[in-house]
Each structure stands twice: as structure tokens, then as C-alpha cells.
Amino acid sequence: SEAINFYRKRGDEDQVKIHEKGLTNEQETRKKIRTTIKEIPQYENYVSFPEKGIINHEKIQQLFRPEPKAGHKILCCDWFVEQDRIWLIAKRSGKQAKMVQLPLKASEVQAFINDKLTDYFRDTLLTHPEELDAMKALIAPLAEWSEPEELLIFSPTKSLHALPLHALDLNGEPLLVRNPIAYAYSLSIMQQCIVRRRTMHQSASVALFGDPTDDRPEAAAFVYELARQVSSQGKGTIAITGHVVTKEVFLNNIKGHRIVHFQGHAKYEPHEPMNSYLALADGKITASEIFNQRELSAELLTLIACESAASEIASGDEPSGLIPAFLSSGMCAVLATLWPVNRFSATEFIRQFYATLTNAETVMNKAQALRAAALAIRSQGEFAAPYHWAPFVLHGAWQ
Fold it and tell me: What is the spatial distance between Cα 95 and Cα 173, in angstroms, rounded to a whole number?
């Protein structure tokens, strides 16, 4: 409704009509999600976590128990919207929380997304990345609140989920240059992922899936390359490609591995988010079907697929989509993409990411490995625009 008022004040009746229709669709979506909650018990458990609310001491203490090692500081950053006002709260374990009202309005953020990222994201992120500066106030307080190299855990809200917050400018450089970053729909969900990882006992093997729809042979070839690259992770590493990647094969083979990699197509359904899906050889597997799975206990699931990180946020910041579905079903962390990726830069990113993550000498966690790979891509002139290095986001346990 704030966005409708915003466009009405601007005299943009076309956008008013679009948002009035969108508001109706949102109401219908929320109704469908509530129906889904009743039909899928696992989803009901997932969204019944306490609402995001304000970061509190107890939640932070539980999240980082045992305490982070010396030199490994962590700052939790939580945005929330009250009417049209955006607030940022930051909390470090054992320290007083800091809070500030940001100068940007929620309706202004939504207008930016509609104008610059919905249909014209390539133009913004590839040709005119300086336009992201309009959103840098969202992270500006972190210049004083956080320290360089400190891990930042971001818990955005509402439309902020659509923004590459890690790519916004802080003191002349993208924030990711300064800090490793992990995302969480809420600290409660993050806590579940961390606890799950601490108690995990599975083999060190890797399962890789590529080109299930048989229309991207380069993806299949790359999966076999990755299999050779990560084979040192343990016996039992498998690579499955093409028409063999049916729903049954996929579900049977993603269990019991440390890392699961999927490279193919995904579709996000904004008005029916539980019908968002991964495209497989014999059809699709939807978010609602994934919510019904058990023991998908990989330490990391990588989804290199168009729109894989998209999620619908209903009232109370309750997410529904592929990432929360996989996290709910047992995955400790999901690395996904915010927008359809360039196949060349994405291939190079994944190659760099796994090389760093599986290198015993580097001893980097997942958030650090993602950052290292993204910055390595950014350093290459042809991939310097955020369109190439900024789509990748890590949700869940970063260790």
C-alpha cells in the first residue's frame, strides 16, 4: 500500500494500477500459503518460528554457542519495516545492540526494485551499476558498527530480499570487499542450520547434477570437471547428467553427501511460490514437494539455476520458495543465485569457489570461500560488473 501511495504522489497511474493488481495478487498468495501450511506439516513447523522482530541477547547467545574464536567476530544485522520506515539493528554477542532508522523509505526501495531490477536488471547490474548507489544508505551504518573482515549475517525483510546488499557501496567499495557475508531469513532459522551442522555425521562425498533438460551440454561437461576437482573430498562422489536426472534419481542421490551441486534450470512462481521448481529430466520438483522430504542432510547445496534464490515473503516475513524448502528438509546451507547468471562468469565462480572450499591449506569457511571466488571474478575486467560476481548468496550455516 505504501508503494501505491508513493506512485500516486508521483502521478504515475500506470504504476498505481500495476501495484493495485499486485496487492490483490499478494493477498491471494498469502491465502494460498496459509492453505499450504495446513496441507504440509513440515512447512507449518518451518514458518512457526518466532517472527523476526528485534534482535535480542538470548537469541544471539544461542546462535553463537560456543562463543566464536578470538579473531572471528560476527555481527548480526536485521532490517525491519514499520509502516514505511526502515530500521537497521545490529548485535554482536555479548555487546549492546545498535539501532537506527534509515533515511530510505520502504516504498522507495520497492520503487527502485520495480524500476531498476524487475525487467531491467541486466541494464542496471551490467551497464549502469552506479545506480545501486541509490540503495547504499541501507548499509551505511555498518561503516562504524562493523569491523573489516568481520562476518556479517544479514537478515533482510520484505522487498530487501531482492537486493544484493553485499554489492552496495561502503566507503567507495562494495561491502563484500570488506566483509564476508551470509544471509538468513531469520536468526531462528540460522540457528537451526548451525545446530544441524554441529551434529551432522555423514560421508565427505559429493553429488553433482547437471543439465537435466538436455539443453545445456556445457553444464553437463562442467559437472564432470567438478567431479574430478572435488573427488579428493571422499569416496562415493557421483556425477549425473542429462536425461538420467529424473525426479526419482535426484531425490535418491542427494542424501548422505557432504556437498550437493545442481546446475540446470529453476523457475520461481511469485504468485504461487510453493510451486517454484527445479526442472528435471521427467518434469519438475516443486518447493512443496521438497518440504515433504526427509534427511536431505548435506552440509551445502549449491543451486546454479535461474532465479534459484527468489522467495516470496508473506506476512510476518515467512518465506516460501526453494531455499527455505531445502533448509527445512535438512540442508545446512544453500548457495544460490539472485538472478539468471551469465554461464561463463558463473562457471568461473563455481570453479574458484570449490577450489577454495576444498583446499585443506586455505582453511576457509563457506562465507569466506564465496567472498574469495566473487572477488576473484570481479578482478577480471570482463566480469567486473556486479551482474557477474554479485548474484551468489549463501543462506544458512556458513562454517
Answer: 27
CA within 13 Å, CB half, 205: 14
Reading phi first (left if > 0) and then psi (alpha if -120 to 50, else beta), residue 316 is in left
C-alpha cell at 105: 523509505
**Whether 212 contacts 264, CB under 8 Å:** yes
C-alpha cell at 337: 543465485
- The Cα 310–Cα 308 span in angstroms is 6
Q: Is the dihedral of CA 150, 342, 266, 157 positive or negative?
A: positive
Return the SS3 of 169.
Answer: strand
**CB of 373 within 8 A of CB of 345?**
no
Residue 202: the pLDDT is: 62
pLDDT digits (tens, 9 = 90+) for 2-59: 556 655 666 767 666 655 655 555 555 455 545 554 554 544 444 443 344 444 555 5
320 pairs with which residues across the strands?
312
Q: What is the dihedral of CA 236, 237, 243, 245, to 10 degrees?
A: 80
Q: What would the mean pLDDT of 333-340 be, rounded to a whole number?
A: 90
Residue 39: CB atoms within 10 Å: 12
Q: Is 32 helix (H, G, I), strand (E, B) or coil?
A: helix
CA distances for 203 relative to 9, 235, 297, 356, 360, angstroms: 58, 8, 11, 20, 17
Helix/strand/coil for 173: strand
Summarize pLDDT for 103-117 with one digit per residue, the tens.
Answer: 999 999 999 998 998
Task: Give all strands of the β-sheet with 277-280 in edge-to-edge order.
Answer: 266-267, 277-280, 283-286
pLDDT tens for 204-253 read: 789 999 999 998 888 899 999 999 888 765 567 899 999 999 999 999 88
pTM of the model: 0.82
Dist. CA 260–CA 237, nearest whole Å: 10
- C-alpha 225/C-alpha 340 separation (Å) is 22
| Residue 53, CA distances (Å) to 87, 245, 368 in order | 11, 41, 28
Q: What is the DSSP string of 291-342?
A: HT------SEEEEEETTTT-EEEEGGGEEEEHHHHHHHTT-SEEEEESSPPP
Closest CA to 349 of 307, 310, 394: 394
Local confidence band at 346 (pLDDT 50, 70, 90 cut-offs): very high
